[in-house]
Design brief:
four-stranded antiparallel β-sheet, mainly beta, 210 residues, globular, 10 strands, six-stranded antiparallel β-sheet
């Protein structure tokens, strides 16, 4: 099944979910190779793996998210949100590694314990900017696809188990880099992804075992 079919938003000429464009477009004045050559002078090279976790249904650290503190500015994110012919518009972006210790429901379906990739899909690869959830198997205990300093990490292979359009709304506290927070509430966890002054929130709810 194609990504477009999973999103359920109608026909569109789409590329495979993990399609990579040639890195010739500019990243707010820098392309990929230039960023590598600049080393410590490039803010993208200073990105590190951040970790946050939350309790769900009495299980400590039941929801854990690892992500890179990506220094995306409004222009870069605009390429993903609005589409176009820039490098950032022509590939998917795996922004977070989600690990579940217990069953949880989000994106309209139940998820078993395991490891998942949260990936932004630019408008153009789908009718609207969306997010897909892929199941994947890390290499080794505690392994992850994330690499410190590598903001161009490729989307890991794995089946797409959920996908839908997403919208980042204004009004969030200002952040100079992407930030993901988890807030535990009764039988649920709120996951908020924040960049700049905009955010997207998704709720993960406990699934009772029958």
């Amino acid at each position: 099944m194609t990504l477009v079919a999973l999103l359920g938003l109608g026909p569109v000429a789409a590329l495979p979910p993990a399609t990579l464009a040639s890195p010739t477009a500019r990243h707010e004045g820098l392309n990929q190779q230039e960023g590598m050559n600049m080393g410590g002078n490039d803010p993208r090279k200073a990105t590190t793996i951040q970790t946050t976790s939350a309790k769900l249904g009495g299980v400590a650290d039941a929801v854990m998210v690892r992500y890179l503190n990506l220094p995306w500015g409004p222009q870069t994110f605009g390429y993903i949100e609005n589409g176009g012919n820039q490098f950032y518009s022509l590939r998917t972006w795996p922004i977070a590694h989600l690990t579940l210790k217990t069953r949880a429901k989000f994106f309209g379906r139940d998820f078993e314990p395991g490891d998942y990739v949260l990936t932004l899909v630019p408008k153009g690869l789908a009718p609207r900017m969306g997010m897909q959830v892929r199941s994947f198997q890390p290499s080794g205990n505690g392994g992850t696809f994330l690499v410190p300093g590598n903001v161009f990490t490729e989307t890991p292979n794995g089946p797409i188990v959920a996908s839908r359009p997403v919208e980042f709304k204004p009004g969030a506290p200002q952040s100079d880099a992407m930030r993901i927070s988890l807030t535990s509430k009764k039988n649920m966890v709120e996951m908020t992804i924040n960049y700049g002054d905009r955010s997207f929130t998704e709720t993960l709810t406990m699934v009772k075992v029958k």
